[in-house]
Amino acid sequence: MSSIIDSYYLQHQELSGFLEEKSEISLKSDADKKFSKTLILASASYFEARVLSIVNEFCSHHARSNEMVMSLLKAKAFERQYHSFFDWKVNNVNKFFSQFGEGAKLRHMENIKDNESLKKQEKNFMFIGSKRNLLVHTNFVVSPLEETYLEIYERYKSANLFVDYIEKFFQDRRAQ
Question: What is the pLDDT along the chain (176 residues), one digit of tens a residue?
Fold first, then answer.
């Protein structure tokens, strides 16, 4: 399934190809470096929206869409709270799942224990969130970013599969 990030990436690919075709190598290099940072921010923002939507749907279902409960959750759990769900200094989402109870955290840890693909997806998800924080909370323009936009896009695709996993995890719990 294609996302807005995929479209964004393809637009930059066209620009980068055009600049290369016109032998504008310095401009291409500069555009690619700047796009790397922008792609981190766009990916992190996209993930934030998806994860908050997943959690909101889950809570709404279990609160039976009670307006009072949902208003409280919106004010105290959702608005500007996304980054507090995670510990961006570690390479796992245990803090996120633990906020839904020890059972949720343990289920996630069991799911990921022997699943190398899921571990990689989780690490890429955390990488994007961590890099986003670094860029936003330091001087964005001069903050170094070693990864190319191609490498970041590959990490995005992997991390996006991890958000799919989060969605399925909550859908399975919603059915219970």
Answer: 689 999 999 999 999 999 999 999 999 999 999 999 999 999 999 999 999 999 988 888 878 777 888 788 777 777 778 888 999 999 899 999 999 999 999 999 999 999 999 999 999 999 999 999 999 999 888 898 999 999 999 999 999 999 999 999 999 877 66
Domain extent listing, the chain: 4-174
At position 137, the amino acid (one-letter code) is: H
Q: Give the largest CA-CA distance in the chain.
A: 60
Give yes or no for a contact between 160 and 3, defined as CB atoms under 8 angstroms apart. yes
Report pTM.
0.91
First and final C-alpha spacing in the chain: 27
Environment class of residue 129 by beta-carbon count within 10 Å: exposed (0-12), middle (13-18) or buried (19+)? buried
